[in-house]
Amino acid sequence: MTGNYGWGLPIAASSYAKDIDFGIRIIHWAMIAIFVLWGIFFTYLLIRYRRKDGVPAEPEDGHEGLKSLLPDIVVMVFEIGLIVFYAIPVWSRIKTQFPIASNSQQIDIIAEQFAWNVHYPGPDGRFGKRDPELIHFTNPVGLDQADPAAADDIVTANEIRMPLGKPTLIRLSSKDVIHSFFVPEFRIKQDAVPGMVIPVWVEPTREGTYELACAQLCGFAHSLMRADVHVQNQADFDAWYKTKMPLKQEKEAASW
């Protein structure tokens, strides 16, 4: 994971990461340009109006009105244009144009102090029922084993697997306090809020291992709340999936 970071942004590993990076770069280049231009202007003022013997400093009686506000107006128009014509369309596309569920990997991620619990449906594509009263340290998501749909489900802790080039639909929730799902390489950050199920999606574009870190201060062990996100080709993902299935369901899946 250390190789994912350099002098600039982390590597772009999702289908919409480059769109977000473009906006970030626009802002940074604009800030550099403003810094340089103001630096040149201040240097000019320091030289042009430096103290001289026999020349007293005299305040001006009037002011230049809107002319003095021109730099601020230019910056304001630029920022409004960036938000209206770039940021909102990109963010709207990410938040509203979700991939089709039938063509995507679906998982539930349930955050808690201080772990990320991941619930995968079995080969039948159906999530088993979960009941808060069944939550136990041996059953962190409260999976109801009496439900037939739960028999082939997979639950992992602090380990997320995603197939390469295939969208992953995530239903994000929390068992206790507000946590924040943040994978820098995916350019994705979303709070997990108690009492809410928040949909998130990502389509990984690079194989590798990425770090999921909680980006919201959530308690004394906040800094330890992390997980590994493994992006694999479909064959490797299927092989891993098979190793996690109970033997009975593995045989049934082989016959489907």
Structural features, described:
This protein has 256 residues and is of the alpha+beta class. The chain folds into two domains: 9-96; 102-255, Sandwich (Immunoglobulin-like). It contains four helices and ten strands, in the order H-H-E-E-E-E-E-E-E-E-E-E-H-H. The strands form two sheets. It has a five-stranded mixed beta sheet, with no helix packed on it. Strands 4-10-9-6-7 form a five-stranded mixed beta sheet. The longest helix has 32 residues, at 17-48. It is elongated and about 95 Å long. The two termini are 37 Å apart.
Short description:
This protein is of the alpha+beta class and 256 residues long. Helices cover 31% and strands 23% of the residues.
Cα gyration radius (Å)? 26 Å
Annotation field: number of helices: 4
The poorly predicted ranges are 247-256
CATH fold annotation of the largest domain: Immunoglobulin-like
* Beta-strand segment tally: 10
CATH superfamily of the largest domain: Cupredoxins -  blue copper proteins
Residues in helix, %? 25-40%
Terminus-to-terminus distance: 37 Å
Q: How many domains, as an integer?
A: 2
Physical arrangement of strands within the biggest beta sheet: 3-2-1-5-8
Main beta-sheet strand count, sense and barrel state: 5 strands, mixed
Rounded average pLDDT: 87
| 3D shape | elongated
Text of the CATH class of the largest domain: Mainly Beta
Multimeric state = single chain
**% residues in beta strands:** 15-25%
Order of helices and strands: HHEEEEEEEEEEHH
Specify the structural class.
Answer: alpha+beta
CATH architecture of the largest domain: Sandwich
